[in-house]
Design goal:
alpha/beta, seven-stranded mixed β-sheet, binds pyridoxal-5'-phosphate, biotin biosynthesis
């Protein structure tokens, strides 16, 4: 019996390898933001999500160490048992102050937060409407939830509008889910127009702002405020601490009612060890720096503009964020390009299906405030040779 199961797994692995879709984790010898060392070889890193360079900020590292000394390395339990320390509450209060929301709840990862958000908030009387390019954590959550699921064309308000219209006579309550910045394309929906459409159909709008928080809006408060809408107009906001804030973990923020409900019924929150308190201390410091050091966001914006200007003749996706894509189409071609860049000292992973749609394998460039103009020139020079 187990042989048959193992043979099935081996077949799937072999099939994936034959399609050039096998992925392998990379073990870093050293990380300092813009530079990484792998197998003794140093590379310019254009693949991370440490957009503001906070993962290695000395103040953040010190806060992590002091947090561990003060509160312990781990939280030792579910937040509803003994896993919530003062520093967790401080972090929730800080998020409320920063984002202007009533309550926030912490999760061990963005994946878990998205699972909790859709599995807990959507029920059998609901219809989840997700953008076609939604992150895997949202798609899986929607598929596992008791709600029905439909997908609208990427960032396409007409497509969403027709799904909402179809629903007016139906018995299901629509809930709309999108992202502030799409993780593989780097583009954004028109949030004010999307919100107006949701309001017209009385549909709650749920936003994953993993790639907008810290980078966009006043004090880095994210995509909603960057586009002039209040976070309170959303049904809830999910974002993580592992991207621009440089650490790990995540939160869902919103009204008291929504967060009270998640606290009582969110299984990913209730039945999971709370975030490490040391990590919370580091996130608090990271948020403080993110809010006060606008120069990090300005530097990132300058780097994005420089890249777009120098790479104007390359087949770039339309994006004015830190995520820039060069679509090559074929999986093998994307892998070969990534290999060639590595030989030139540039670390840039090839992104292939199922992370992106079939036939749209690409080089996904992520820019950081830490990159220098010279780094970006070198990157573009290499990309030109490939394209
Ligand atoms: C849009 C989006 N949502 C959610 C996640 C999951 O977050 P985490 O890495 O904290 O689990 C990611 C990260 O890959 C993401 O890009």
């Amino acid at each position: 019996m187990s042989e048959a199961k193992l043979a099935q797994l081996q077949y799937a692995l072999a099939e994936r390898a034959a399609k050039h879709l096998l992925r392998q984790p990379v073990t870093l010898d050293n990380y300092n933001g813009r530079l990484i060392t792998i197998n003794g070889q140093q590379y310019l890193n254009f693949s991370g999500n440490d957009y503001l360079g906070l993962a290695t900020a000395p103040e953040v590292l010190q806060a992590l160490a002091e947090g561990a000394t003060h509160y312990g390395a781990g939280s030792s339990g579910s937040p509803l048992v003994t896993g919530q320390h003062k520093v967790h509450q401080q972090l929730c209060d800080t998020l409320c102050d920063w984002l202007g929301v009533e309550r926030a709840l912490l999760f061990s990862s963005g994946f878990a937060a998205n699972q909790a958000m859709l599995l807990t908030l959507a029920d059998k009387q609901d219809l989840l409407l997700l953008d076609k390019l939604s992150h895997a954590s949202l798609i899986d959550a929607a598929l596992c939830s008791k709600a029905d699921l439909k997908r609208f064309a990427h960032n396409d308000l007409n497509s969403l509008s027709s799904l909402l219209k179809q629903q007016t006579a139906g018995a299901l309550q629509p809930m709309v889910v999108t992202e502030g910045v799409f993780s593989m394309d780097g583009d954004s929906p028109d949030l004010p127009a999307l919100l107006a459409l949701c309001q017209q159909y009385k549909a709650p709008l749920l936003l994953d702002d993993a790639h907008g928080l810290g980078v966009l809006g006043p004090e880095g408060s994210g995509s909603a405020t960057a586009q002039g809408i209040a976070i309170n107009d959303l049904f809830c906001l999910m974002a993580n601490f592992g991207k621009a804030l440089g650490i790990g973990g995540a939160f869902i923020a919103g009204s008291k009612t929504v967060i009270d409900y998640l606290e009582q019924f969110g299984r990913h929150y209730i039945y999971s060890t709370g975030l490490s308190p040391a990590l919370c201390a580091a996130v608090l410091k990271s948020i403080e720096l993110c809010r006060s050091q606008n120069w990090r966001r300005e530097q990132l914006q300058q780097n994005i503009s420089l890249f777009r200007q120098l790479a104007a003749e390359l087949p770039l996706l339309v994006s004015d964020t830190a995520i820039q894509g060069v679509v090559l189409g074929d999986n093998e071609r994307a892998l070969a390009a990534s290999k060639q860049l590595k030989l030139a000292g540039v670390w840039l992973s090839a992104i292939r299906p199922p992370t992106v749609p079939a036939g749209s394998a690409r080089l996904r460039i992520t820019l950081s405030a830490q990159h220098t103009a010279q780094d970006i020139r070198l990157l573009v020079q290499q990309l030109r040779q490939i394209a």
